[in-house]
Amino acid sequence: MFISMLLIFICIFQVKIGSCNELNNTIVNNTKKDEYNFWQPTVGTTWNWILNNYGEIIESDSNVDVLDIDLFDNDESTIASLKENGHHIICYFSVGTYEDWRPDAEEYLKVPDLVKEPMEDWEDEYYVDITNPLLKPIISARFDLAKKKGCDAVECDNMDIYTVDSIKKWKVPITVSDQLSYDLWLTTEAHSRGLSIALKNDVENLVTMVNFFDFAINEECYNYNECKQYKDTFIKNNKAVFAAAYGDYCDYEFIKKLKKQTTGLELSMIIKNEDMELAKEYVKFDPENYNYDMLCNNENNIEYNDNISASVKNKPKILLLYIIIFAFILI
């Protein structure tokens, strides 16, 4: 009740009557959440994030419970196979941008003034006006596709565009209440299809949204001193926080910072390559048990996904073989 009243207060404060009515309706719909059955990942659930597999079929990985994969790049048979091997599947798609390579891209262009300026770091991706009601049928179709393909949950990206500086300069900017209303609508779309849904980043609204979202996904909270904010929100409610760090697992200063920011928080943290391509390679990061010397000198204290464990862990053996061959040649 408190959170509902808080949302209503925010809405009124923003003086957005249309948005306010929609927000209130969404809050009412979310009270029916218990009527739906969907997967709820708990604290400590392990994961990997594979949004770029370079056209290859994603393989099962016995080291993790969850695989977060692209909705459009993976077919029903791939998802079914991964689920048969014990994985829960999170399907990724964007809800705040237009991506010109997606199969439904033309649907965005049919709506006047829906597609806005390009994102700063992604030239082929453009922000969209989330207050345009004609966006919702497009996004609803994506939820339908996630359900059809057998996804257990969805990762809706770009659900905090109200914070973007260029959007704040629009003639009619996206407000906090606009964003909350839209994001709560997303939860209703997910839950009504039996899908759980992640709160992606948007740390500023963790307290407000924790009761409506089923788990969280965060990138680089360690860089902004934000990781600890999950402890009294999602972690306290036994909702998994899937966190990703970008960097070199043997970069001492990087690891030192990561440990400082995440110790005691029970985040499901993985280290991904610093190029941010989100390929299949990853390293599980447990701040309480991460032995830098053992890891980086001996490759003994690390858990990789099955696809790369052999090539990495066998480095010392391969090096020894080269030394023996070289010594034999000299003799």
From TrEMBL:
Identify the EC number(s). 3.2.1.22
Class of this enzyme? hydrolase
Write out the entry's keywords from A to Z: Signal
Q: Which Pfam families match?
A: Glyco_hydro_114
Where does the signal peptide begin and end? 1-20
Q: InterPro entries, alphabetically?
A: Aldolase_TIM, GH, GH114_TIM-barrel
Domain (Glycoside-hydrolase family GH114 TIM-barrel) ranges: 46-276
Concerning Gene3D superfamilies, the annotation shows:
Aldolase class I
Q: What is this protein called?
A: alpha-galactosidase
Biological source species: Neocallimastix californiae
